[in-house]
Amino acid sequence: MRSFITVFALTLMITSAFGQSYNLSIGIAEGKNFYSYGLEYIESDISQKAHVNHDIGLYASYHRNERWAVDVSVFYSSKDYELLVDADNYQWVDPNDPLRTSGKQELEYKLRYLDILVALKRNVWVRNLTRIYLSLGARPGFKLQENDRFHNFSPNLLRAQNLLVSGNIGLGIKQGFSQRSGVFLEPNFAYYLNQIYKGYEGRNTMAFRIMTGVYFTL
Question: Positive or negative CA dihedral for 81, 86, 87, 91?
């Protein structure tokens, strides 16, 4: 949490250095994430059960003019999922239950990242306090926590990357309550430049996100 606050404070200082009255906005954002990790290619008797993951964070936006803006956001992001494994074919080390079991088992993987999104936004339609915009950005993520259960056929197969980088494209809408506050909704798509796991040669990770938030203009 301390690193989260530090990164956002630096972000706010940088953007405010360029900002003038009504040019700088800050806000709180929350997102629901639907990941596709591409792990269905590991083995025929292993399947993935996706979770609905979440982002929570802060952002600062510098409005260059009526059309263009640059956003910098900092998110605490979960990237959890489960693998459904046939326990008759595989064993794993589970610190909570070290005895071998049989049948179909669920292996829980809990991942936490600190994500920093830098996005360029352009308003494509403006009417009164309503704006529709396009967003294009890059989002590096730094691993904070990894809790999992290993199966012994390849202990390193599902070790998460320390750094994930994705390209993001979105279409959003902002609805102002006044000149100084409002809410936004932005569905976006993310394509990761690397696979989420080390040593795994499947397709790259993808995600669909639905971001919502509230903003205040300084």
Answer: negative
Positive or negative: CA dihedral 7, 11, 14, 20? negative
Give the tokens for residue 194.
């690397």
The topology under which CATH files domain 2-217 is Porin (2.40.160)
- Give which of 41, 47, 110 is closest to 81, Cα–Cα: 110
**Core vs surface per residue 14-41: b (16+ CB within 10 A) or e:** ebeeebeeebbbbbebebebebebbbee
Tens of pLDDT, residues 91-130: 555 555 555 555 566 777 889 999 999 999 999 999 999 9
**Mind listing the pLDDT tens digit for each residue in 180-211?**
999 999 999 999 998 887 766 667 889 999 99
Distant-in-sequence, close-in-space partners of 189: CB < 8 Å, separation ≥ 6:
168, 169, 170, 206, 207, 208, 209
